Amino acid sequence: KEFTAALHHEASNYSKKPGTISGAKTSNVRFTNLLDEYKLHHFKNNKIWHSPATFGRYLSLVQFACKTLIHIYSGMRDDEVYSLRQGCLIEKMVDGNLGFWLHGTTTKGYSRKQPAPWVTSKDLVAPMNAVNTIFSWLQNSSDLKSDAPLFSSINHFSFAHAHNRTSRD
């Protein structure tokens, strides 16, 4: 969390400069120093992260893996998964058994968006925690509202390659 915030803060200084941004906002040397500073050098040593771009790509891949697991364990369609918001995974005791539901929005069978629950399993607890964590990092680093989609783009981070190149939709 602190590493992500520090990287975002450093890159945001660069992002505020006028003109086109064609190069990296944080040098790979500074990125490596930040990894060491936050004791994350094992990611550097294993060649998982070697630049801000690969770190951003890693966060996107985590989001994609979590989204895929949601499809598998709930049967939700793409637009339904993208309708999810923070706190959408509900755990509830039913007849002495712990049940899990995802609450989102569907248009299936309706001509407009309708709130809907999907029955799922405890296997989504870890992926949902990961997605919620990334979302909270995005929220702390940008002006995302609390009701923004859970799978908001990592381009809201100033170190992301496409930051300042896309609309903030």
Structural class designation: alpha+beta
Distance between the termini: 24 Å
Taken in chain order, the helices and strands follow as: HHHHHEEEH
- As an assembly, this protein is single chain
What form results from the Cα inertia axes?
A: elongated
Mean pLDDT: 86
Which ranges are low-confidence, i.e. pLDDT below 50, for 5 or more consecutive residues? 18-22, 165-169
Question: What strand line-up does the widest sheet have?
Answer: 1-2-3
Radius of gyration based on Cα positions: 18 Å
Q: Please describe the biggest sheet, giving its number of strands, its sense, and whether it closes into a barrel.
A: 3 strands, antiparallel
The percent of residues in helical segments reads: 40-55%
How many E strands? 3
Annotation field: number of helices: 6
Strand fraction: 5-15%
